[in-house]
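Q: Here's a chain of 255 amino acids. Please give me its 3D structure as tokens.
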Amino acid sequence: EVYSSDDTASGDTALHCAACKEDYACVKMMLGSLENRVHLCYQLLRKQNSEGETVLYCCQNVAMFDLLLKFLDGFLTSQLLTVVNNNNQTIFHKVLYDDNDEAFRMLLSKLQTKDKLAVLSVRDNANGWCVLDTIAWLGRNGTKPLAYLMEGIQPHELYNVLKTRDNRGETIIHHFVMMNIHKEVLEETMTTLTEYMQRELLDIEDMQGRSPYYMATEKLRSDETNAISHWVLQQYAKLQTSQILIMENVQGKRY
């Protein structure tokens, strides 16, 4: 009860305050006293202040993240990582915006496959970005975390995530093309989808009427070495050819 008190105007608990001050010893003492009471520990870590932020949002170093999460089992940890603040950001959004790549990878390793879709479906208020958009737009973190986030998600569910637009009407595919990054991940992801899904994703237009296919065409006019644009155009041509062949086959059977 003492630890969970939030009498401050900010709604911060004593644990919030200790974590913000990076008082490792104090945080360890508080959680250590609850080590055999997992559910109480979970409730304390899940408690949100007036900004909707749990104690995880206060962390500035990986050691503190590790200390906080080690007191929870996998199930409860995964639930904790799907909490959103008042800006509709998960802790994954927060550490990405804070350039804390190491914390992002450590938190990602705690996320269970069954909860990945819940995390990927959250879009922040500022940009309408999910975690995938944030990674693509910031152009960081390499391909492994990105691929891991999408691993294990059913194609139709992944398609729904990929086709969702941000506040500018852009999808994650738009962002990949604009930033010319993560070609391998895009290629692997797209080929797990049906041809119909792939065509739809490459044809979705943003608020300016630009589809990923259109963007790729424009990119190659100014940079002929743009690898991801080359792949998009080649894949689009294959999909169009396949669609024509299917239509000709259907028409042939009718006659």
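Q: Can you summarize the key feature?
A: The two ends are 78 Å apart (CA to CA).
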